[in-house]
Structures are given as structure tokens and as C-alpha cells.
Amino acid sequence: MNDITILRRLAQTIESRKLAETNSSYVAKLFHGGQDKILKKIAEESAETIMASKDGNTDQIIYETADLWFHCLILLAFHELSPDDVLKELERREGISGIQEKASRTSD
């Protein structure tokens, strides 16, 4: 069964590979490249997800979204955050209209 624990397991794997040798771990290579390298991958995966959607290819949409989510998990780990932090925010927003939620944000 697919459930939220996969995100937690992936986050644990990412955490365990942060300091690995770059020649043995893709995750370590991204961390070694720093935030810019991670953000570049997120931009790339976002564009690929958009193109899969525009093409209407459901298999590619799923594949590219999985890549995008994975790289977002790497970004969270870079900032010492976890999927649970995002899940808490989604839970906070549950039942609130998007218009209402956006209006409640304070501007800096």
C-alpha cells in the first residue's frame, strides 16, 4: 500500500547520504554542489513535469512528478526540514479556502 511513510523513508535515506562520497551517491553530489545545484534540478524537474502535462502523457506526468518531489525532499533536507514540516502546513490549511488562506498571510 502506498502511504505517507514513503516520504519519511526517502527523507531518511537522503539524510543518510548527505555526507557520503560524491562518487557513490547522487544525493551527496547534489549536496556537495550546494543550494544552486539543488535548485537547478528542481527547476529542471518542474519544467519536465509541465511538459509532460502539456503533452497529456499521464505516465510521464507521474514519473516527472516523482522526480520533482524527490528533489524537493533534497531541498528540504538541505534546509534541515522534513516532509513532516510540509505536512503540518498542509494540515493547518485543510478546510480553509485558498482565497482566505492567501489573505491571512502577512507581507514582509
Keywords:
single chain; 108 residues; mainly alpha; Helix Hairpins; 5 helices; 0% strand; HisE
Number of strands: 0
Percent helix, as a range, is over 70%
- Count of helices? 5
Overall tally of structural domains: 1
Q: Would you identify the CATH architecture?
A: Orthogonal Bundle
Uncertain segments of ≥5 residues (pLDDT<50)? none
Largest pleated sheet: none
Globally, the shape reads globular
**Rg calculated over all Cα atoms:** 16 Å
What amount of the residues lies in strands? Answer: under 5%
**CATH superfamily membership, which one?**
MazG-like
Catalytic activity: 1-(5-phospho-beta-D-ribosyl)-ATP + H2O = 1-(5-phospho-beta-D-ribosyl)-5'-AMP + diphosphate + H(+)
Family: Belongs to the PRA-PH family.
Subcellular location: Cytoplasm
Pathway: Amino-acid biosynthesis; L-histidine biosynthesis; L-histidine from 5-phospho-alpha-D-ribose 1-diphosphate: step 2/9
Secondary structure layout:
Layout: H1 5-17, H2 26-55, H3 58-78, H4 83-93, H5 98-104
Helix pairs in contact: 1-3, 2-3
How would you describe this structure to a colleague?
This protein has a single domain, classed as Helix Hairpins (Orthogonal Bundle). It has five helices and no strands. With 108 residues, it is mainly alpha-helical. The relative contact order is 0.12. The protein is globular and about 45 Å long. The model has no long low-confidence stretch (mean pLDDT 91).
